[in-house]
Amino acid sequence: MEQFWQKLKTLALHRSGDCCNDSENGSDRTHATSGTCETGTALSAETVAYLQRLVGEPISNLPLYQTALTHRSVVHDPATTSLIESNQRLEFLGDSVLGMLISEYLFKGFPESAEGELSSNRAKIVNSKSLAGFARSLGLGDHLILGESADHHKIRSSESALADAFESLIGAIYLDKGIKTAFDFVIRNIIEHVNFNTIVAAEHNYKSRLIEYTQSNHLPPPLYTVITETGAEHEKSFTVGVSCSGELLGTGTAQRKKDAEQLAAKEAMERIHLTLS
User: Fold this and answer.
1) 167 annotated active-site
2) pTM of the full predicted structure?
3) Among residues 167, 176, 259, 261, which one is catalytic?
4) One of 38, 91, 95, 261 is an active-site residue; which one?
């Protein structure tokens, strides 16, 4: 794990220097007044100012944030003529960074909580429903970059699109400004959010409950498998099954694999309770 985070730190240093003040090549692409690098982006001045307020300090690599806001519908839109990267890779990184930061906060803030409770609370905070709620509080949907042929109203209010963009934004902040600025963003917009305590106090996460059940009964850990994928590339729906010892316990369908896994775990827990009752 230590080697993994060291790699991320190295990548962050590399990426933050890619865009601005490229003195070795004899060019200076830093904006003279705002400190932002705007070359090669299609972001409006309004969105640039919005991002600046969210980050809380001068942005060094603005193209990263454009990628964070780019929904996959842009990449798969027939009207797209240039190579554009969606936020899916940044979402992967942001998910890991967010998970680590929330884990650290819970570990230090709840010293009497056991591992199972910490895992459950983390899952409740970083699931798509919670993340979409945080994103809505920021008005993030208004600044998403969407494909011309996509359903803009639907995507801007979509739970999965908002959650992905929120995680992607954290990934961009981490690469651009480092772990401290990313943590400051998480504190302001998650930990200090008005709904944070309500989220933590909510019913335990189904995936965590299923893991706790298998561990307490000395069973193999649950195995999640994608059964089917349907729909257009930017509006896919996943059906996931969860099994234990080769037996299918439940299935779930959602736009995000994480949510489909939750629904599958929920069905599995309901089946287990029915069997035991």
Assistant:
1) yes
2) 0.65
3) 167
4) 95
